[in-house]
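Sample intake sheet
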Amino acid sequence: MEFTDSQIQRYSRQIILSEVGGKGQKKLQDAKVLVIGAGGLGSPAALYLAAAGIGTLGLTDGDVVDLSNLQRQILHTTDRIGVPKVESGGQLLSALNPDITLKLYPEHVSVSNILSFIEAYDIILDGSDNFSTRFLVNDACFFAKKTLISGSIFRFEGQLATIKPHEGFPCYRCLYPEPPPAGLVPNCQEAGVLGVLAGTIGVLQANEAIKEILGLGETLAKHLLLYDALDMTFRKVGRPKAPDCPLCGPHPTITELVAHEVSCSL
């Protein structure tokens, strides 16, 4: 498929990068990315993926827009309070880039539906706000052999990792074998989060997805990126494969998707 004159103009600043060019832009156009969660992380990630020209962009979330979301969830506006988040987000994404194909799923991921959701996509971005979904997404991507870009935020700190155990890299459970018990971490509403922190980590998730699609730079699959918004510091720490990982280790004890009781993120 050839680019139209308007598409060439739209993506011109990307295409003139020698590392991208027309071939790279075509890879973005052919790519299929699913964003799980249209909240603090999913909002900036989806916006930049749409702007970059990702050909097929999926968005799944079962919530509706609430006034308390608007401090960080930039896909939504005050006049859309009470509207399903994927519907609200879809309006803005379509207005930003009508060339892309949007697929909207107005429901939360679960054991019963996640494999069908991720089946058609190349890369999955996890923008969920609880450990139970985070582990479910990791396990589903492992079984489906999908690349996962996982982000999380808490108060003034963020984490980012690329998960590709199907290529020999560690999975999320190599770092965190099991989610913490419900009630051990602060309540999602009580802990709080700096709004712009969500923007920082969400944009970095989009950046890592684009790198994976284009095959550029160094993958984050061997490391965990830690960001402190107060100190303005980034740290990369090693994330080796766990020899006794219950999911991707040589003697796995997790052989099918399981549901965990909800606990908050990070």
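Comment: The chain has one domain: 31-238. The first strand starts at residue 32 and ends at 36.
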